Each structure stands twice: as C-alpha cells, then as structure tokens.
Amino acid sequence: MPTKNLHANTSSFSSDTTLAPRTRRRVSMQAGARVELPDLTASVSFDSHEPIGKQIFRALRQAIFAGQLVPGTPLSEKEVSDMFQVSRQPVREAFIKLVEAGVLQVLPQRGTFVKRISPRQVREGRFIREAIETAVVKKAAVSITDEQLQALADNLRDQKLAAKSNDTAAFLALDEAFHYAIAQAIDCTAAWETIQDIKAQMDRVRYLSLPEVSPLDLLIKQHAKILAGLRAHDPGAAEEAMRSHLREILVSLGPIAERNPAWFDADEPERVPLST
User: Fold this and answer.
1) Which residue numbers delimit the HTH gntR-type domain (predicted)?
2) What's the angle, vertex CA 226, arms to CA 221 and CA 227, rounded to 5?
C-alpha cells in the first residue's frame, strides 16, 4: 500500500494547531468556574463527508491535548453546540467518545470537566501501544517496500526541519504520520486506529514534555533507528528501536508531573509493574 502522503489524517494531531503558552498549561481550574472556550470552529467543515460529531470530537480532543482546554475546564453541550452552531446531538456523541478516551469526566450534579492525567493510565497505554507497535514494525521490516522506506525518510527529513524551526505542533503531526505509515506498510491501519483512545493520556504528556524534557533531536534519533531497522529488513533491530522509543515517556512522565502538578491525578502504582 503506497505511503507517499505521510500527512494523512491520523485523527490525533494537526500541524495547524498551535500549542497553548506554557503559562496557560500551569493554570489550575476550579470545578464549576466559568471560562471562555477557545474558538475551535476552524477545525470543523460542514462541506466534509465526515460526520460532524466525529469532527467535533477530534477538535475538542486536540484542544485538550494542546493545553487549550486545561484540566478542570467545564464543558457544556449548549456552549459547544452554540460554538459550532449545531444541535446538541453531535456534541453529546463527541462528549461520550471523549469520556471513553479518558479525557473528560462527568461529575453528577456538577457537570462535565476536562479530566486530569492519570500516570497509571499513561503507563498502561504505553504498555498496550508497545505490544501493538512492536508487532507491527517487526512485520513491516520483512515486507516494507523501497517506496515506503523513501516516504518514511522524507517524513524524517521534515521532522528535522520542524525541529529546526521549533515547530512543535508540526513535529507531532509528523511523528503521528511516521507511526501511521508503518502500519500502512503492512496494510493494517486498524492497528493504529485501535490504539488512538488507548494512547490519549500518553499524547497529553507528550505535548507537555516537548521540547524541554523530551528534546526533539532525541526523538528524531529514535525514529532514525527505527527507520534503519526497517531499511536493513531486520525485524529484531526494528522491534528493539520501537520499544526503546515508546519507553521514552516513562523517563519524562515523572519530571512532567512534578512541573505540572495541577494536570495530574495522584499516582496509583500497578500491582504488577508495566514498565519492565
């Protein structure tokens, strides 16, 4: 399956999204406090064949990931439906999916709020993502084509350009496309789609960690090792490179939680450690 276009819609990141200033990231919202919601209407197209509820879901999820909607921010169906000028039904559908993804919570008699990040769910998400993506890259190392390898190399080049210009949002979009393309290489994009909600908490930490805690150059080097394993058609090398890359979040999670305590729930260590 050709992978020339690595800027395909991966449903998580968009290079058009600007990260919220770090000062906003550290704001702690009080439950029930009214805040002015960011204008997200540019993220929705009524001319698209995609259901409007799915577009609203993605727009809100992206705003949560990017820190435009910080933990504790109250959301109401009415406010969001007014923003997008739609009925409440597609907004309700989007809210349900966001609750399922673990980024919204409904508090009885109080309302719906952006949820804090659960360190345990970050580790669980990484564990599941690692299991899937190492299997994918291992298989891709056997069957990947020269055309697909070139597309990944082009993506890696663009990552370097994004890092050089300090365009974090563009880098994250390219990062998503890089991983998505590996799933495309084995004609199994369902593997990538399966982990979208699973890795939601991971993605929120990734936004907070760049570029201070997880330098872009480091992540680019990790991607280069994955590509080298694929080029060598070495399943073991590709698998190990992917595993090492996905475990980077275990290094950054602690420092990020310390820097942004208002963003995180208290940690709940798992009975069986998932980080080893």
Assistant:
1) 50-117
2) 95
Tell me: do 68 and 142 sit in the same domain. Answer: no
Q: Is there a cis peptide before residue 211, judged by omega within 30 degrees of 0?
A: yes
Domain boundary, last residue among 67, 92, 114: 114
- The whole model's pTM is what? 0.81
| Residues 114-131: tens digit of each pLDDT | 999 999 999 999 999 999
Residue 25 lies in a domain: no
